[in-house]
Amino acid sequence: MRNAKLLLLTAILASVPGFAQMDPSGEWAPQFQEDFLERIPGPDIGDYLGLPINNAARLRGDSWDASLLTLPENQCRPHPSDYAWRGPANLRISKEVDRDTQKLIAYHTHISWQAPERTIWMDGRPHPPADAAHTWQGFSTGKWDGDVLTITTTHLKEGWIRRNGIPRSENATVTEHLFRHGDRLTVMVIINDPDYLTEAFVRTTDFLYDAHQEIAPYPCESVIEVPRPRGTVPNHLPGDNTFLTEFANREKLPFPATRGGAATMYPEYRLTLKAAPGNIDAAALIAKTDAPPPSEENAPQNTIVNDGEIHTQHVQGNVYMLSGAGGNITLQVGPEGVLVVDTGLPNMTDKVVAAIRKISDGPIRYVVNTHVHPDHIGGNEKIASLGSTIVGGNVTGDIADAGKGAAVIAHQTLLDRMSAKDGNQAAYPSAAWPTDTFTDEKDLFFNGEGIQVIHEPAAHTDGDSFVFFRRSDVVSTGDIFVTTGYPIIDLSRGGSLQGIIDALNRLIALTIPAGKQEGGTMVIPGHGRLCDQADVVFYQEMVTILRDRIRDMIKKGMTLEQVKAARPTRDYDPVYGSTKGFWTTDMFVEAAYKSLSAK
Questions:
Q1: Which of 311, 91, 306 is nearest to 209 (CA)?
Q2: Coarse DSSP helix, strand, coil percentages of the chain, rounded to the nearest 5 percent
Q3: 213: which DSSP letter?
């Protein structure tokens, strides 16, 4: 009988899948060790010790002003997932298991500071496409490597390597390893950032099991901490940050060591310090390390690859985003038909129509153009001809073609430019022209929601418009806002740098984020991935800082060539810069200089 029971138990155990992995689930309390000063009071200004940063990241840190965090749009920003472990982070990890199969679907984490919620998918699902939205927590997938949980995260919003202005770009890939030894959990974070790091950056954080802890809720509502004019972005101009040497002087450290760089991570670096001259000109060293060598001039990493196909994603409500046709296209669909914002390049029109028909077979009623460039209006003629206008009650049956073709809505400037020779651009055929123009704002009510077409003067061009879908809570921006490069300032068509900044400030005012400065109003840029307000804020801060720098150089009497040589954009070039293509960094600097110099 004993042998029979043993055989039965063996058979039962043999039928159960092996589970050799540790379980990280539970309540965990943070352990502060030598990392206490960085994690709690926060790192010093200018402390870049041991960070494998490049010169672009260093200038971002030198220009950073802590007052930036007092802006309402930054107050409720949580730590991104790769940094969230570092805060005063009481941690909860829970499992999601399929009820029927009992297979692990995901781990979920909750951290006390700002209460970010994160999902780590364990079911093998793929990462989203490149044009999907980025979030603070990113998109994470996990797998077991023996007894170690390995997590890969992409689609992160911009974050920080160190919480004193040293950035981690949205193009970074983060790998994390979770180890559990009894009641101790160790999290190793490895960051690979093509924009701001020259080597992988590695850090570890420890937690102790704490079954009795309770994590309180963390509501956050932004307020006006410091009254400022709208659009103010606190920052230090290059060479003007007087606080950069305080850390080295207080801690009696060699100033070059505090500037970071991959070499400072290794013990051999001490030998180079012993051989260094005793009297070092800190200002000269800052100026030297601020100027990156040409090898750091890489094309931006966040350009959406164009494979010749149209990619569609549902944004929210009635609204969809189509990418791959040149400029992004926005669709609003419903029982009354289809509204199209921008029409892409003419050679992509057939594919655009096919993509529209996969979403809705309703009639195309309206086409709205955000501006005059061919990659946004090239498909006007054909797409409008496939539609039909909703005929109003004041139209009699005597007008035989009143309902033929979709109505094309645009600012008056577009009709003026499209109906006449515009520089080297010949006049467009009349079938592509706007049929309904406005000068300030056009309001529609279509498919059950209010739609505002809002003109932004002298921005990217003089005919730019936002399209705001009020119930769906989505804004289509045209090329006032893009994620793939510096702003395109079309001076010949009435564009200006200040106009772009004014329009970005209005866009921020128009959008309302959901909890933790994420989601809520979604933003479809003219080029690039799907965004929300936080992404617009990052872009607005960049453009405003560059305006401040170039304007300061103009006040100092610097010529255009001198400004170009000074490279005022060098800390943002890894993300937005380009040395080739139709819009280069030099072209942006020249347009910005001329725009700010104009009377």
A1: 91
A2: 30, 25, 45
A3: -
Which architecture, in CATH terms, is 311-534?
A: 4-Layer Sandwich (3.60)
**Alpha carbon 38 to chain centroid, angstroms:** 26
pLDDT, one tens digit per residue, over 461-473 is 999 999 999 999 9
Helix (H) or strand (E) holding 510: helix 497-510
Strand 159-162, strand 166-168: pairing: antiparallel
Q: Where are the domains of the chain?
A: 18-296, 311-534
Counting Cα atoms < 13 Å in the Cβ hemisphere of 514 gives 11
Residue with tokens 């791959």: 324
Helix (H) or strand (E) holding 310: none
For 311, phi and psi rounded to 5 degrees?
-110, 130
CB atoms within 10 A of CB 524: 28
Rounded-to-integer distance, Cα 511 and Cα 41, Å:
32
Identity of the residue numbered 529: R
pLDDT at 270: 85
**DSSP output for 73-106:** HHHTPPPPHHHHTTSS--EEEEEEE-TTT--EEE
Residue 290 has pLDDT above 80, yes or no: no
* Among 524, 410, 416, CA closest to 478: 524
127/424 Cα distance (integer angstroms): 43
Q: Indicate whether this model's pTM tops 0.90.
A: yes
Number of Cβ atoms within 10 Å of the Cβ of 456: 25
CA contacts within 13 A on the Cβ side of 309: 3
Give CA angle at 402 (397, 403), nearest 5°.
Answer: 105
Q: How far is the C-alpha of 586 from the C-alpha of 599, rounded, in Å?
A: 22
State the CATH class of domain 18-296. Answer: mainly beta
Closest CA to 259 of 239, 280, 279, 285: 285
What is the rounded CA–CA span in Å between residue 50 and residue 325? 44
Q: Taking a C-beta distance cutoff of 8 angstroms, is the pair 388, 363 a contact?
A: yes
Token pair 């419903």 is at which residue?
334
Query: What is d(CA 145, CA 176) in angstroms, rounded to the nearest whole number?
Result: 12
In this prediction, residue 278 has a pLDDT band, given cuts at 50, 70 and 90, of: low
First to last CA, the chain: 101
Q: How many CA atoms lie within 13 A of 492 on its CB side?
A: 7
CA nearest to 155, candidates 421, 571, 518, 544 = 518
- Two tokens at 6? 């043993």
Which DSSP state fits 514?
B
Closest C-alpha to 463, from 484, 432, 442: 442
List, for residues 366-419, the tens digit of each pLDDT value: 999 999 999 999 999 999 999 998 755 444 444 445 567 999 999 999 999 999
Tokens coding 351: 């594919």
CB 73 within 8 A of CB 222: yes
Residue matched to tokens 């970005």: 504
Distant-in-sequence, close-in-space partners of 397: CB < 8 Å, separation ≥ 6: none
Question: Quick one: tokens of 458?
Answer: 């002298």
